[in-house]
Amino acid sequence: MTKVLVPTVCPYCGAGCGFFISVEKERATGIEYMPDHPVSEGALCSKGNAALEVLCHQERFTSPLKRKGEGWARISWEEAIDLVAKGLGDAIKKNGPGSIAFLASSKCSNEENYLIEKLARLLGSPHVDNCARLCHAPSVVGLNRTLGAAGMTNPIPDIASSKCVFIIGSNLAENHPVISRWIHRAKDEGAVVIAADPRVTHTSWMADVFLQLKPGTDVALLNGMAHVIIKEGLVDRDYIAQRTRGFEELKESVGDYTPEKVAEITGVPAGDIVRAARAYAISPASSILYSMGITQHTTGTDNVQAVSDLALICGHLGKPGTGVMPLRGQNNVQGACDMGALAEFYPGYKKADDSETIRYFSSAWRTEGLPLGPGLTATQMIDAAGTGDIKGMYVVGEDPANSDPCSHNVHSALDNLDFLVVQDIFMTATAQLADVVLPGAVWAEKEGSYTNTERRVQWSCRAIDPPGAALSDLEIVCKVARSLGLDFYYPDAASVLAEINRTVPQYAGITRERLERDGLVWPCPTVDHPGTPILHSSGFKLAEGRACIVHVPYRPAAEVASWDYPFILTTGRVAVHHNAGSMTRRSPSLISREPDLYVEINTADAARLKVADGDEVTITTPRGETEAYARLTDKVKRGVVFMPFHFPGTNILTTDITDPEARIPEFKVAACKISRRD
Amino acid sequence: MPVYIDISRCIGCRSCEVACQRVHGGSGHVNVHFVGDSASVPILCHHCEEASCTMACFSGALYKDGDKTVFDVEKCTGCGLCRLACPFGVVWTDKIAHKCDLCEGLAEVPTCVTTCPANALSTDFDLASRRARARAARVAAQGGRR
Amino acid sequence: MIKVDASLCLGCHSCSNVCPSQNIVRTETGVTRSIHWKRCKEECDLCVELCPAKALTLVPFDESVPEPEVCFYLVACKICGSRYATEPMLKRIESVIPANLQKDSEGLDWIRVCPVCRRTIEAERATRQMVLGRSRKSP
Questions:
Q1: A616 falls within a domain
Q2: pLDDT tens digits for A370-409?
Q3: A52 within a domain of the structure (yes/no)
């Protein structure tokens, strides 16, 4: 019996670990590690090790479905595609192309995302977005403004050469476990690790200095650190003079963020703020790692700008071991953004509201009448569906009914649509509301390129066939596009990548032939370019080549604890689950390790509420209520509670107030009350 | 030749548990334990020099082979004595006994060692002791144990 | 059929596990474990051979002899109280392991502790330094 080893990229987080799937007789029989992988070195976390469990899962879609009364009827592909073409076509005919919206998927490959946004725009709709809106939209907006490029500035293995690693708002030990091996390597070489988080996390275990701040006070903390650095003269004067603008304004605006004042706002002792600031500024090479704890706030964009300010005034950019590193949560959320599946960008971050962009793509795609953006964001689409401005939606591999905040509202908004088509692998909460369901494929059942959080584009090969009549998402999108009269003839993913090489300058040199082994890191402008692991080593892609230091005042979160809602609820992930959980909650070895929704409550608060460990409690916010098991702990401070968002209950509670620029909802702060269920 | 654990590196992701279970057909030989809110550690067979499980095994299924404690499934009757004789509770019996086999015949390096995202596990004694010494030096440099 | 010397039987799983015709039935109630040997005509002596205590003998089939059954109370774990083994099994362990290994480095008589608690104790000891160090960092 012959065993073939097929190289693939893990479908879970953004670290982009590689592994081989061993295939015998057309069946995936096991995982083999990849010890020479540049990021993971053969390692895989619990999710990666359980990845094959979703492949042949009994609940997978095996044929297209249409709604029939309260249930579902299995239909043929011809009928399904006809229904989709009619559903979307009718909406366009009646209300214009602006009445349909598309959600692309950060689980799908670059090629698929490129085709989905191209489909939307060729149909004339500017409304295409992906779930980056719910994780790193502020990084895209904020970093484009301050540094001129959105993405990790340095590669993951580079962390090992850092002398100070500052982790803020990221529980990477649970969410991107393989990154911790590089942090440990830095520690072995004497690096100082600083962690800032409202909870004691597995990440804070690694820290030498731990700053346990109140949720939503990140700007105050970062301004406080900038204050100390400037006051003690630890800034990099030459770097500021040669590479940046806006320092004087920052200096003035952080003038009154004294450690004592910041301590009062954040709850972090003033001495620790000073220690952290000195350690970050003095070290020869410091890096900042952040993720959702920074972005998922109404002040998300401010937070991101404050983070890059810190790096800029200390000159910790453009060299090995330095950098600003937004850690992305999904295997291809970076790629989905690069491919222009974003309301405000065409492929390659070309601004959608710029007529030059429209000219460029009109000639590249040989078409006319491309819509000028920006379109509606993922969160705005849902609102527009609720008000009836959006009539039809095409959702690929996303579960907004579960992952968006204030999920009761999302349900009724999606219900209000005339036509909803969902392309997915499992019956998610969103698919439940669909008119037509199209069965897609998971990573191992199709080929394509994926861009990990460090901008490394890697090719993942097809190991097995999709179950039943399911098809690769690329084939499905092409079928739908052709039925709507578009010229979508792509025989395989490589032919789409060839078009991406022509239209996306950052990917120009990333051809299929070059994507063997380690992949390539964009920007890679020509076919003989080696890729660019470290950004900004020779200036910034902004006016005069200078980065912008943007001073940001501290604004409190939208919701604060009150008499009625005395606790602050913050949300996050656990190691064995991923996002809305449609895959991990169906993986036996993962769900058995974390089977139920729980809420972490400080032991002192619990005593006052007369709640014991394991009790069932009700958590209530103005949006709704959820039941969960209480977990008593001192990981959270008094007045703060934590819930993982992998279970349907959590986002019933969260608020849909968004950041004014990036439109990201404030998942991380919601005022709530808790009572024991009797 | 046991698997050495650097507890300072363990991040409690339970990857070793899932991986061990995966390669051993559903029955894993590692348990990750969480202690309070501040540490986690995988508990698995130490391959003791004086292995009490082998002393309790009457059928010769568990025996020492050099520095490994190995298990011969053919000889096991599933009596359960080894489970009771292990001071660390890392020999299990469901029908027959199972314990860490260092992935012999399954992989060159134990699966948990390769898969550990944080590099907390190794089979290299020198590396393990070097790390322990470095950590001690670090504690001393930061002003000792206080 | 099988004759049992109840004074030698450990109450282990061996005979019931190896019997090819499921003639030996083990029943656990949570507090007790009983083992019941059905009258069998087979000339098989696998259980006899594989009994760790040599408590079994193969005797000629005799319908008048009642089917043997032994019953043991299970011993409770010193720490969590869960019942995890029979007294003769623990005695057997105590007889085969050298005395210096029967108490661990902190003087605990670990044989009287259930395997689950043994793992917990091992985890707590292994991480003691780490927990102390980390709790100092975040007071």
A1: yes
A2: 999 799 999 999 999 999 999 999 999 999 988 888 888 8
A3: no
Q: Which residues of C touch A207 (CB under 8 A)?
A: 137
Percent of chain A with pLDDT strictly greater than 70: 100
Same domain for A461 and A389: yes
| Chains touching B by CB (3 or more pairs below 8 Å) | A, C
**Residue C107 falls inside a structural domain:** no
- State the angle between helix axes of A473-483 and A110-122 in degrees (0 to 180), rounded to the nearest 10: 10
Which of A273, A300, A326 is at the close of a domain? A326
Q: Are residues A501 and A583 in the same domain?
A: no
A272 pLDDT higher than 60: yes
Interface of A with B (CB under 8 A): 30-31, 33, 35, 40, 42-46, 48-50, 173-174, 177-178, 180-181, 184-185, 188, 200, 202-203, 205-206, 575-576, 589-590, 593, 633-635
Q: A227 Cβ partners below 8 Å, 6+ apart?
A: A254, A255, A257, A258, A259, A262, A277
Residues 205-224 of A with CB under 8 A from C: 205, 207-210, 212
Give the B-side interface with C, CB within 8 Å.
Answer: 5, 7-8, 31, 33, 35-36, 38-41, 43, 50, 52, 55-56, 58-59, 77-81, 83-93, 95-96, 139, 146
Show residues of chain C in contact with A192, CB under 8 Å: none
Neighbouring C-beta atoms of residue A84, cutoff 10 Å:
24
Angle, CA of A434, A439 and A442, to the nearest 5°:
125
What is the number of domains present in chain C? 1
The pLDDT tens digits of the residues spanning A59-74 come to 999 999 999 888 999 9
Q: Quick one: A574 and A488 in the same domain?
A: no
In degrees, to the nearest 5, what angle opens at C-alpha A115 toward C-alphas A113 and A117? 70
pTM higher than the cut 0.80? yes
| Same domain flag for A203 and A341 | no
| CA–CA dist A4, A26 (Å, integer) | 10
Determine, yes or no, domain membership for C120.
no
Question: Which chain A residue lies closest to C139 (C-alpha atoms)?
Answer: A210
Residue C113 lies in a domain: no
Whether residue A580 is found in the same domain as residue A454: no
Residues in chain A with CB shorter than 8 Å from the CB of C138 are: 200, 204, 210, 212
pLDDT-derived band at A123 (thresholds 50, 70, 90) equals very high
- Residue B144 pLDDT: 53
Compute the nearest-CA separation of A210 from chain C (Å).
7
- Quick one: pLDDT band at residue A56, thresholds 50, 70, 90? confident
Closest CA to A612 of A628, A632, A598: A632
**Cβ contact, residue pair B78, C90, below 8 Å:** no
pLDDT for residue B143 is more than 80: no
| Residue-range definition of the domain harbouring residue C39 | 2-98
Q: Tell me how far apart the alpha carbons of residues C23 and A575 are, in angstroms, rounded to a whole number.
A: 46
* Residue A143: inside a domain: yes
A619 and A565 Cβ atoms separated by less than 8 Å:
no
Pair (A322, A411) in one structural domain: no
Residues A225/A164, Cβ–Cβ less than 8 Å: no
CA distance B61 to chain C (A): 12
Q: Do A118 and A148 have their domain in common?
A: no
Whether the CB-CB separation of A193 and A208 falls below 8 Å is answered with yes
Inter-chain touch A203–B11, beta carbons under 8 Å: yes
CATH architecture of B1-44+100-146: 2-Layer Sandwich (3.30)
Q: How many domains does chain A have?
A: 3
* Domain stop point among A326, A350, A370: A326
Query: Token digits for A480?
Result: 């739908």
* A337 and A217 part of one domain: no
Q: Report if residue C12 sits inside a domain.
A: yes
Mean pLDDT of chain A: 93
On whether residue A68 sits in a domain, the answer given is: no
Query: Which SS3 state, helix, strand or coil, does residue A183 take?
Result: helix
Is A224 in contact with A258 (CB distance < 8 Å)?
Answer: yes
